[in-house]
Design goal:
Layout lengths: L1 H33 L3 H12 L14 H20 L3 H34 L3 H12 L3 H10 L4 H29 L7 H31 L10 H18 L4 H13 L10 H28 L3 H6 L1 H24 L9 H9 L5 H12 L5 H29 L7
Helix pairs in contact: 1-2, 1-11, 2-11, 3-6, 3-9, 3-10, 3-11, 4-5, 4-7, 4-13, 5-7, 5-15, 5-16, 6-7, 7-8, 8-9, 8-10, 9-10, 13-14, 13-16, 15-16
């Protein structure tokens, strides 16, 4: 009986995966015809397939399957984004990236928290917890958008790198505030900063070592004996980078992003691959990243709780509006304007003000808060989903239009 139940569960899961792949493929074609980022269509289709409408796909947010897809999918998408980063460009903008990924998260969280306090009338600690949950951008959303829409290199790579680096800061702030709210400790700025540096440094070191090792094994003229297995090496290394960093209590997302940067800049490391082999690897990464986007955003759409959102709809929309139109612009101008090395133009900063989609990572944080029964967790989850829908449906959809208006779009 137990084996039969397990078999039925396996077949049901396989059917759901088949539905997601089939619907995702046609959704991707629809997104191409409509000329919008595919994550937007995936999210909408997911909402249609979920329990709230058709009820065809129902995979719980706290299930092992969903967590597996979320961790590996986000990691692989982030690796893909890192591989498109060029070190030459990063050298120009690294100051902005560091400041906006650290101080910028605090600024965004404080402004959003203040809006939640006055608009929703929640206690200060709940408002700050909501602000911290929303403060970090989402690499799983931003990277696919910038992979599909070609924006001026230094702008696109700054936003993608920021999204990879600020998840550690967002998580640290969120759980520090949660500790205070639950009476588990007091805030210590010194400990928080030390923890941030530890997570960042370990993530960079682990990603750098595994990235160099992977490049060595698939591209070295004499010792690159795994050249034919390059796609498999990327899978192993992405998993290895994330799990190694996570096991050492550092940022797994930062590790896989740095791993991608190392592999994508093999020439700078002294390695050279055959053009044919490079094309095969690029095609594999592109296809795998597409599949991961399908699963992540369709499942995210199916998990939108319409009943919960409706409870705080008007207040949530107001907070998300402040989050998009006030918190992000203030953060960008305070963090990017002083960077004289990068010499950001007004058009570039205006574009960065608009591109800060919220998605998988804040959604996961909100889900964890609900599971831990944090104060105001349901309000936080409700407003977080509203912000996810607003930023993805509004900002991601208009990214190409705005880039064209600001003369930042690179024509194919």
């Amino acid at each position: 009986m137990e084996s039969s139940a397990a078999l039925e569960l396996a077949k049901h899961t396989l059917l759901l995966f088949g539905i997601i792949l089939a619907v995702g493929t046609f959704s991707g074609l629809l997104a191409r015809i409509a000329r919008v980022p595919d994550v937007v269509v995936f999210l909408l289709i997911g909402m249609l397939l979920g329990p709230g409408v058709l009820g065809q796909v129902d995979i719980k947010a706290d299930s092992a399957i969903n967590q597996l897809i979320l961790i590996f999918g986000s990691s692989y998408i982030l690796f893909d984004g890192g591989a498109s980063i060029r070190l030459k460009v990063l050298k120009e903008v690294w100051i902005t990236v560091v400041v906006i990924s650290t101080i910028g998260v605090l600024i965004t969280g404080a402004i959003t928290g203040a809006a939640a306090y006055y608009v929703l009338g929640v206690p200060v600690i709940v408002a700050l917890l909501l602000g911290a949950t929303l403060a970090s951008t989402d690499p799983a959303t931003l990277v696919p958008v910038f992979k599909q829409i070609r924006i001026k290199d230094r702008v696109a790579q700054t936003v993608m790198t920021e999204s990879a680096f600020n998840d550690a800061m967002g998580a640290i702030i969120t759980f520090t505030i949660l500790g205070i709210a639950m009476g588990a400790g007091e805030f210590s700025a010194g400990d928080a900063v030390a923890d941030l540096f530890k997570q960042a440094l370990l993530g960079i070191v682990i990603g750098g070592i595994l990235g160099y090792l992977a490049a060595f094994l698939i591209s070295h003229a004499k010792f690159g004996f795994l050249a034919e297995y390059a796609p498999v090496v990327t899978l192993m290394a992405v998993i290895g980078a994330y799990m190694s960093a996570d096991g050492l209590h550092s940022s797994g997302f930062m590790a896989v992003f740095v791993f991608g940067i190392m592999l994508g800049n093999q020439e700078s490391l002294g390695f050279q691959r055959a053009h044919h082999d490079e094309n095969i690897l690029e095609d594999y990464i592109m296809t795998t990243a597409l599949i991961m986007r399908m699963f992540i955003f369709i499942l995210l759409g199916t998990q939108v709780d319409f009943a919960l959102m409706n409870q705080y709809l008007l207040g949530g929309v107001a907070v998300a509006t402040v989050f998009m139109l006030v918190a992000r612009p203030v953060t960008v101008f305070l963090c990017a304007l002083p960077d004289r090395r990068a010499k950001w133009s007004l058009k570039e900063m205006l574009f960065m003000c608009w591109t800060r989609e919220t998605g998988v990572i804040p959604g996961a944080l909100a889900g964890m808060l609900v599971g831990m029964k944090a104060p105001g967790a349901k309000i936080i989850a409700s407003v977080t989903f509203i912000a996810i829908l607003m930023t993805i449906l509004i900002q991601a959809t208009t990214t190409k239009w705005l880039a064209k208006k600001l003369d930042l779009l690179v024509e194919e």
